[in-house]
Amino acid sequence: MELYIIRHAQSQNNALADPSTRTCDPGLTGLGHRQAESLARHLANGRAHEPIRNGEFPPLPDDPAAPDHRGITRLYCSAMWRALYTAGPVGRALGLTPQVWVDIHEEGGIWLDHGGELGILGYPGITRGELLSAFPDYAVPDTITEAGWWRGGHETWPECQARAARIAAELRHEAASDARIAVISHGGFISALLAALLKTPVDDDIFYHHNNTGISLLRFRPNGEVRVRYLNRVEHLAPELRT
């Protein structure tokens, strides 16, 4: 099994000069939409699946009719707007239906810190109707209802790590398959997921940073061995698109 772990494109919160003005579930900036399109083209041409040699991608097969065994077969994204918007161009480019996977949401869930007496409050997130209206072709789980999908207040970092460990166990069950899975998720959760998949010590001083649309590729063998092919690759983005 191959696993492509991808951070969403630049969100409106990512671009804020003043973090205190963040929203609980932002969409993408104009630059973020351009990043998502670049990501989609990159994944569709097959070059995301090969290591870089001498700073360049190896050539693709000359015969366009030759079978390409490198194609991604499943595409997942979280139920947060920034991941949903990032998945759209990717799904179209790959000919895949984005599948919404609630449990790969960002650390903390949907929340805002209002300060003062209000403090940190949780919010429900996108409703089923909103999601299907904006993304009618996505596969949406029954757990997303008109009441939204998040009712957890503010998730702690240890709770996020425990969730990542559960997702890592689910993914490891597919190690012997020939699936090529792409997940579009979030910076904090991706770091926790990589730590769980690679069985590295739980250490708050270690963080696997990903730029917007940064890609990491892991290959799983039937015996449980995991090969890290690359981390946080952003060569698909022109320099002015890297954030």
Put the structure in a nutshell:
The protein has helices at 30-44, 81-94, 128-134, 157-172, 187-198; strands at 2-7, 74-77, 99-100, 111-113, 120-122, 180-185, 215-220, 226-233. With 243 residues, the chain is of the alpha/beta class. The longest helix has 16 residues, at 157-172.
Instruction: Please give the CATH class.
Output: Alpha Beta
The total of helices stands at 5
Query: Roughly what percent helix?
Result: 25-40%
- Give me the secondary-structure category: alpha/beta
Q: Please tell me how large the radius of gyration is.
A: 18 Å
Report the count of strand segments.
8
Order of helices and strands: EHEHEEEHHEHEE
CATH architecture: 3-Layer(aba) Sandwich
Q: Output the CATH topology.
A: Rossmann fold
Q: What is the average of the pLDDT values? A: 90
Broad shape:
globular
| Number of spatially distinct domains | 1
**In angstroms, what separates the terminal alpha carbons?**
29 Å
Strand content: 15-25%
Strand order, biggest sheet? 3-2-6-1-7-8
Described by strand count, sense and barrel closure, the largest sheet is: 6 strands, mixed
Summarize the helices and strands and which ones pair or pack.
Blueprint: E1 2-7, H1 30-44, E2 74-77, H2 81-94, E3 99-100, E4 111-113, E5 120-122, H3 128-134, H4 157-172, E6 180-185, H5 187-198, E7 215-220, E8 226-233
Parallel strand pairs: 1-6, 2-3, 2-6
Antiparallel strand pairs: 1-7, 4-5, 7-8
Helix pairs in contact: 1-2, 4-5
